[in-house]
Design goal:
With 550 residues, this protein is of the alpha+beta class. Helices cover 48% and strands 18% of the residues. It contains 13 helices and 19 strands. α3 packs across α4 and α10 crosses α11.
Length: 550
Amino acid sequence: MLTITLLGTAATMPLPDRALTAALAECGGHALLFDCGEGTQAAARCAGVNLMKLDAICLTHYHGDHIFGLPGLLQTLGCQGRERPLTLYGPEGLGEVWPALRTLAGPLPYPVRAVQLDTDPIDLTTLSSGWPAGAQLTPFRTRHRVPSRGYRLDLPRAGRFDPAKARALNVPVPAWKLLQRGQSIPLENGAVVAPADVLGPARRGLRFVFSGDTAPCPALEQAAAEADRSAAAQNASADALESQIAERRAALPYPRRADAQAALDKLEADRRTLRTGMDTAQRKLKQAEQSVAAAEAAVEALTAQQTAAQKELPARSAEDLTAQQTELTAAREALRSREKQLSAQLLPNRKTAAQYRAAAEARQTLESRWQWVSALAATAGGTLTSKQKIKLEAYIQMNYLDRILRYANTRLMQMTAGQYELERIGAENQRSQSGLDLGVIDHYNGTRRSVKTLSGGESFKASLALALGLSDEVQSSAGGIRLDTLFLDEGFGSLDEESLELAIRVLSGLTEGDRLVGIISHVGALKDRIDRQVVVHKARTGGSTVELRV
């Protein structure tokens, strides 16, 4: 089917309701655009046509009112994601016009092929395989002040498709469209159906002629006359078809399509009802046949059992049967008595079972709580398996010790010239209580070791730093408590001169702010460094005297 849409017919200047020259010819999913004046895109939007179907743009000449819409259209196609090639046809001068249009359009994501035409026909299937076989575009010269062309579009039409022939050849309905397009169809039985097998004689084709600005010229008159004759023939054929349609419509059993559809729907509903009833009857019949077969098999089996029993059992007298009946009656009475005894025991047993289940649930609850309490006690007591042995009391002391060590290390680093730093370490194994052991970091050689390895003087410095750290922590954490007096007893005798100097420097810093530091020592070097002294003299008679030196 060929559809022609006149997108614009104005000249020189576009009007509010009339765009500049442009026409669109569509066939299936493919199209040709003739000229592209200003406003072509807006006119296409209003007409509801899709310009992405374009295979080629055919320009009649290069005046602005015929080509100024082209750069914008090319950009729009690129923005809409076109990747398929586009062909641009035009008369002489296209080689100079196209580079300028290409510059205005900017970079494009699809190729554009510019072809300068003479009058040779163009096979449209070379643009796309979607055009019908034999479709041609023929340019012809027109009369204008500049080089110009008109265009004639010819579409052949195959013969009418005969559905009866297609059904007789067992052609599937989805393949009918392919036969109408001229393709042969292979069938499942190996046969091949050609288009000629289901199509009638070829019909007169369709023709469309388009020309831009031109004076009267023979080529245009000839193309238009051929198009008129083709249109007249199409009209005559259409009149004949209308007559045939009227005759066949009169012969239809239903005057309207809705009536025929209603009758068809009723027949389809009746068919489904009958089909459902038939399926139900067949299902019931099958079930009945199965039941009869099962009953016959059961009768045969019982008959066989009866025959076998009669053969196996010997003939017995009435006295024997009576005696056996008496024995069976006595056995039944004994079983009934036993049943009553068991029934009497059942109620207490059920009550006992309920009590047992309640006790088991209570025991499970207690076991769960015991496990929780036991884990909590083990955690607080420091007896967890595969864990460090840390009691709750020791854990709290560890926190306080860490805070004391922060203050103590400040003092110890001063007294040891940055060599030693105390740290809290864990136990050597998980079997011993841990958490409050101390280690020392030697920054001179980068090693860690126990405080037990310190010398006497180093141990004194560590003890002094811990004492001062405890004092700082108490004053920091206990609001309102201030330690104004500190007494140190012995230990200075184990220090060398440099260590003694560093220790005295630290203690001197503590005296600032009206704090009192008392040192009990026999080291002579301290006598020269301490101004205020309490000197104790031991008498030979066993007593002693005190001398204050201020």
